[in-house]
Design goal:
Elements (H helix, E strand, L loop, with lengths): L7 H19 L8 E5 L5 E6 L5 H16 L3 E6 L4 H13 L4 E4 L7 H10 L4 E4 L21 E2 L3 H13 L8 E7 L5 H16 L4 E8 L4 H14 L5 E4 L2 H14 L4 E3 L5 H9 L4 E3 L3 H13 L6 E2 L5 E3 L11
Parallel strand pairs: 2-3, 2-4, 4-5, 5-6, 6-12, 7-8, 7-9, 9-10
Antiparallel strand pairs: 1-3, 11-13
Helix pairs in contact: 1-2, 1-9, 2-10, 3-4, 5-6, 7-8
């Protein structure tokens, strides 16, 4: 049942979601330098520096941030770093120079971002992080918010990896060590190390017998996930399970698994619309449900000065075909 061709409706959904995930943000009037201004003209202005609006997850965060700003009578200035750390640094400098009321940053590099926090604070502009911590992820727990940040709104990425690992334990073969491959994100993102650490912690806590036989970056994209899984299957055709650190990659990996005639199980992270549809169709085994629009709203609330905690998060349930109704995809 898992290996039947995907229904036509799901195939069409791939194209529809890729466009729809950006509509809420990109339909707004564009400013120079890749910026998008949304909200009430004349209201206080808040900036959001995203890793790239071509990533559906980042676009959903921007939508949540912009919608929250509009509800508050404010203007959101969304800047697209396009995956370029130097452009993101320049964008943040531009927002500081504009004396915006607050800056939210989805950092491309969590260590480099420490300097951005210092510059914003020196310029008297409150700054918050969204979706990824600031600081060295190997030394700083996600709930230990970097000094100088108003807040960090994020998933607990280690807990997300742990939830994926707990799900994987139930999918692994018994009677022999399982062969597991990890499809990572991209270098510099703290989530790469955090999600892998939580995943291994869950396997070890369950006493699972396993070996990580391969790990390759999929660069957060469907195409990257497909290429990485193709490469791994060519060298390791007996992989039992692919742990994809993001749902975009698990969609591509599922294509590679089907094309190779493999029976490898597939676990992702993110709760995307496509992953939810693929789980319902039996092409993916499970995912961990994230809510990026909620992250955007939580970050905006922190910048406005509400009195919530510095670390802001929400429940992230793991879902399989039996429980996928608990996850309503926001991206």
């Amino acid at each position: 049942m898992r290996w039947r061709p995907l229904p036509l409706a799901l195939t069409l959904l791939v194209a529809v979601v890729a466009v729809a995930s950006l509509v809420g943000v990109r339909s707004a009037a564009r400013a120079g330098g890749g910026g998008v201004a949304t909200g009430v003209s004349g209201g206080p202005r808040y900036g959001l520096s995203t890793v790239g609006l071509s990533f559906p997850f980042a676009a959903a965060i921007a939508k949540g941030f912009s919608d929250a700003a509009a509800r508050a009578g404010a203007t959101a200035i969304v800047l697209d770093a396009k995956g370029d750390v130097q452009k993101q640094a320049n964008d943040i400098d531009d927002l500081i120079a504009q004396h915006v009321a607050g800056i939210a940053v989805m950092p491309l590099d969590s260590v480099v971002a420490q300097g951005w926090v210092a510059r914003a604070r020196k310029g008297g502009v409150p700054i918050a992080a969204v979706a990824a911590l600031v600081g060295d992820p190997r030394k700083r727990r996600v709930e230990d918010v970097y000094p100088g940040l108003v807040a960090l709104a994020s998933q607990d990425e280690v807990a997300a990896g742990r939830a994926a690992g707990q799900m994987a334990v139930r999918l692994l073969p018994t009677g022999r060590p399982a062969r597991i491959a990890i499809i990572e994100g991209a270098a510099g993102f703290p989530e790469v190390e955090q999600r892998a650490r939580g995943f291994r912690d869950a396997l070890d806590a369950a006493g699972a017998r396993y070996a990580i036989v391969a790990a390759q970056p999929g660069n957060w994209t469907s195409e990257g996930g497909e290429a990485a899984c193709q490469n791994i299957l060519a060298a390791q055709p007996s992989v039992d399970l692919f742990y994809n650190e993001a749902d975009d990659m698990v969609i591509g990996c599922a294509r590679a698994v089907r094309a190779a005639g493999s029976h490898a199980r597939l676990v992702g992270v993110g709760g995307s619309k496509l992953a939810v549809a693929s789980i319902k169709a039996g092409a993916v085994d499970g995912t961990v449900c994230f809510k990026p629009e909620a992250l955007g709203a939580l970050t905006f609330a922190a910048l406005r000065g509400d009195h919530g905690p510095r670390f802001r998060t929400y429940p992230i349930p793991a879902v399989t075909r039996a429980t996928v109704g608990e996850c309503v995809g926001q991206w």
